[in-house]
Amino acid sequence: MWQDKDRIMTAELGHFALILAFVVAIMQMIIPMIGAQKGWIGWMDMAVPAAILQFALTALSFAALVYAFATSDFSLAVVAENSHSSKEMLYKITGTWGNHEGSMLLWVFILTLFGALVALFGQNLPKALKARVLSVQAAIAVAFFVFILFTSNPFLRLAFPPFDGNGLNPLLQDPGLAFHPPFLYLGYVGFSIAFSFAVAALIGMYILIWRTELGYKIRTLGQNPNAAHYAGISNSRVVIIAMTLSGAIAGMIAVNEVLGVQNRLVLDFVFGYGFVGIAVGLIDGFVYIGTLFQAVLLGYLLPEKGSPEAADIANWKIWPYLMIPVAAVGLILAIRVWNAKPKPSKRHEQA
Question: Can you give the pTM of this predicted structure?
Fold first, then answer.
């Protein structure tokens, strides 16, 4: 009797922890991003404890599901469908992620783990960058929490629990395949951190170009070097800074390619990459939100260099037509930006 009550409390505790992790993820998604935009240190610092708390709550929820499988709690629908009382303990625990609901919870558990690692070991990162990275990471987690809680809840109860379960998928009843999903997820989900850094850098670059004095100097020099010189801007200094930033960004891309994709130094791996970047810039009219979507879209549509798909000319015939509506939207955005009139500042309005 007491054991049944413990099972009930454990499952409900895991469900409640998952809901709390969802709420924390929403706060982590919004507050640090606003703090980084406004320069509010306290709001940016909130990202670290939020990421750690989100991971702790998700870990508690995942541990509750593991406990339900280990104790054969067939009152949970997911346990009844994917476990059996006669199975070895290894395969009872494997049943936790041997199904859709449990695998999604494992996915978000690893996702929050990487966010917590950045929060704990990213002390040398600039506060604004760290806050934006953790905010983007939380936004990814929010999407998964919504999917799990509203469409794939692993803590759903059965009105009439069976005496025994259906058993684990026979394909997963092997030690190698039992540990395959967690290690696979560690690799796949780990790329979410790289994505979060990329989006954070995109936001930071927008702020640098359009919201800082240096960005104003770069834009002025790019549009009219003579006007920039007569305005007191050191053209040579701005050029050196801009080239240094460009080289640093290109170096980060190269490090990701060499260490994460090629796993060795390949001298000509950048061949043709610049043309894709130019295409992205032209299509979206250099609007930063457009850059994000265009880069993802082109990366998805273009065949991988060196693959059989890239050698097949048929795979290159369709994607230019898919770019037509996107290019039209980019042209409209570019025209709007070109014809935009600057709004007077509050200081000029008061004067």
Answer: 0.67
